[in-house]
Design goal:
The chain is mostly helical. Helix content is 64%, strand content 0%. This is Transcriptional regulator.
Length: 264
């Protein structure tokens, strides 16, 4: 019973942090998730709560995040081989955190290690509550990290490869990749291609927030009809967009797994 409660609290904490963008609510729920998981004797759930806590903005964030990652790694180390998949997930979260801190080399090193480890996925199973963390979702994060580091061509290749691994009916996940490709083409000054990807992403509303981030990069091309059309399509979205997509942003929603109104 306590394990089920900890799983539920972890889900709610992710929703508050990365769906509703309410760090204070997320911090309270994730701390409760950690305490509940510890009481239930589940180090993997406790480590997952710590990993997400490391993404919660706060005073002294860098130091607190480092402490959370260290504590999570200790828990997973004590859990032994069964924690290998959760460790991959934790390193993906750490890569996301490093990107936010501008530590691009560290982020690329971490996500590349995760990508390599997942080649042996059968030997490194995720716990049931992490089975949404797929090769494609790791690719989405890696592509975004590469773009943040200014590696435009590499980001494009990574995202195109991720697209090739996604089922045709996994519309939510494909929309997130299209949004990433739109950002890549915008950064490369390819307004027409960027608009094309952005419009394809908007066929599934999950990616709307990510495409909003592309819009600013296309402002200088506003005279182009494709950009005007994109602006019109985005008119119903809020002026402020949430952070770009990352590995934690995708939830288990069957074939529609993508940016839920909730969770990353």
């Amino acid at each position: 019973m306590a394990v089920a409660l900890a799983e539920s609290l972890l889900l709610v904490g992710r929703v508050e942090l990365l769906g509703r963008h309410d760090p204070e609510a997320a911090r309270a729920v994730l701390r409760e998730a950690r305490t509940t998981a510890a009481g239930a004797g589940d180090p993997l759930l406790e480590a997952a709560a710590l990993g997400l806590l490391a993404l919660v903005p706060a005073d002294g964030w860098a130091e607190a995040a480092a402490e959370s990652f260290t504590a999570a790694r200790t828990l997973l180390g004590e859990a032994g081989a069964r924690a290998a998949g959760t460790l991959d997930w934790l390193e993906a979260i750490e890569a996301e955190r490093a990107t936010r801190d501008g530590e691009h080399e560290k982020a690329i090193r971490l996500i590349s290690r995760v990508e390599g480890a997942r080649v042996r996925a059968d030997d490194r199973p995720f716990p049931p509550w992490l089975d949404w963390c797929t090769t494609a979702r790791i690719g989405i994060l890696k592509g975004r990290i590469q773009l943040s580091a200014g590696l435009v061509a590499q980001s494009r290749r990574t995202l195109l490869y991720a697209m090739a691994t996604v089922r045709p009916d996994d519309h939510g996940q494909r929309s997130l990749i299209y949004a990433g490709l739109a950002a890549v083409e915008s950064a490369d000054g390819q307004a027409y291609e960027s608009c094309g990807y952005a419009c394809r992403a908007l066929e599934h509303i999950e990616a709307g927030g990510d495409v909003m981030g592309v819009r600013a990069g296309l402002a200088e091309y506003l005279h182009d009809s494709c950009v005007e059309d994109l602006y019109e399509s985005l008119a119903f979205f809020p002026a402020e967009s949430p952070p770009a997509a990352d590995i934690t942003e995708v939830t288990r929603r069957g074939t529609g797994a993508g940016r839920a109104p909730g969770i990353r």
